[in-house]
């Protein structure tokens, strides 16, 4: 999804929460409860931090002592407890075991994990994780579900204003976790149309770009994945309005996601969805076929 494929490579937008920025179009809030995560990501992280502190105190451990058991500094433990940083899933698992929490911390893991995403992408990330099919049109960068770790990290480092190193690692972990969709069974249908210009942009340098092309070729061989390249030289182009994603939710409902300059929207209105479906269908006919696209990427590798 182009979220941060193209956009979550930036700082969270000030004053924009997903429930506002991604307000579904054409439905009331009650109608669209499936689209919302049920609360603020910041609130979940704060609640987790309070539980962590309570359990650590009960265990009779000071922050530096507890941190040393997990290879974290005492100041990082303090940041987790105060809700200033989002812990990684691996930290949550180990902390639950060390503090003998009986699964209390692990029970919050999925909600905390969602808080790793920029606020404007959290609802879309949840829908993506349970989707039966995704149709992604990417303009600015290789889609996040196809990215290598090095390519993704380089993209985060390019953001302005600059992101702190811990935020970069947090966002990187979240993006790589999203790629677990490739291992899901039953496998969802994943369709990608990527602009040639995005494929040629050397984010992270030439070596990182080569590695990125190689990963795209590997993923393109999966039976449930189709990757198509939209050549720059094409005169006909059905989607000059920008990137978008169509999501087939597990409920059987189709939802559209668009994003520009950190302003994201989820659409459930059928007229809007049909409009984007039409564009995507025409784009598929205008782009190279999956086989032609593989040949195109192989040619890029040969030329580099």
Low-confidence stretches: 7-34, 36-40
Number of helices: 14
CATH architecture of the largest domain: 2-Layer Sandwich
Spatial order of strands in the largest sheet: 3-2-1-4-5-6
Structural class: alpha/beta
Overall geometric form:
elongated
CATH class of the largest domain: Alpha Beta
Helix content: 40-55%
| β-sheet strand percentage | 5-15%
The total beta strand count reads 6
**Count of separate structural domains:** 2
CATH topology of the largest domain: Endonuclease, Chain A
Distance between the termini: 27 Å
Short description:
With 304 residues, this protein is of the alpha/beta class. It folds into 2 domains: 223 residues, Endonuclease, Chain A; 74 residues, Orthogonal Bundle (434 Repressor (Amino-terminal Domain)).
Write a structural description:
There is one protein chain. The protein has two domains: 2-37 and 117-303, Endonuclease, Chain A; 41-114, 434 Repressor (Amino-terminal Domain) (Orthogonal Bundle). 38% of the residues are buried. Helix 9 (149-157) packs antiparallel against helix 10 (165-178) and helix 12 (206-220) packs antiparallel against helix 14. Helix content is 46%, strand content 12%. It has 14 helices and six strands. The protein has helices at residues 2-6, 18-21, 41-58, 63-70, 74-81, 89-98, 109-114, 122-129, 149-157, 165-178, 196-200, 206-220, 270-286, 290-303, and strands at 133-138, 189-195, 225-230, 244-248, 254-260, 263-267. The protein is of the alpha/beta class and 304 residues long. It is elongated and about 70 Å long. It has a six-stranded mixed beta sheet with strand order 3-2-1-4-5-6, with helices on both faces.
